[in-house]
Specification:
Radius of gyration: 23 Å
CATH architecture of the domain at 32-109: Sandwich
Protein name: Secreted protein
Number of strands: 7
Shape: globular
Keywords: Signal
Structural class: alpha+beta
CATH class of the domain at 32-109: Mainly Beta
Distance between the termini: 81 Å
Order of helices and strands: HEEEEEEE
Strand order of the largest sheet: 4-3-6-7
Signal peptide: 1-29
């Protein structure tokens, strides 16, 4: 009777290392975050970033009408903020840092002073 062969310790170690690396990459994942507040009756300031505390300078932040037209095209500044004039029509804010990193904020959810 022959004994079944067991994987070598080297293969087992390599598999454990790869599995461990996969868990580490997952732990480093970060979620997009965006907050918009009315400064006054005419101005809105949005701040974007990620759950790991990093900012989002240069990330796209567009103000979009309910008819899907872009009312205010924008990108976050070096301080990860964008201030814009409140549109006259209904709108939402789209923070788009790429696939899986999108946040939508409806005008009804924007804090007023």
């Amino acid at each position: 009777m022959t004994r079944p062969q067991r994987p070598s310790r080297l293969l087992l170690s390599a598999a454990l290392l790869m599995l461990s690396a996969g868990f580490s990459a997952g732990a480093l994942a970060h979620n997009p975050m965006c907050e918009c507040k009315a400064i006054d009756a005419e101005q809105i300031k949005c701040t974007g970033g990620f759950s790991d505390g990093s900012g989002a300078p240069g990330v796209t932040l567009d103000v979009i009408g309910y008819d899907e037209t872009i009312l205010v095209p924008g990108k976050l500044g070096t301080d990860s903020t964008l201030t814009f004039k409140k549109p006259d029509s209904e709108f939402y804010v789209l923070f788009d840092a790429g696939p899986g990193h999108v946040v939508e904020i409806d005008q009804a959810d924007i804090e007023t002073p």
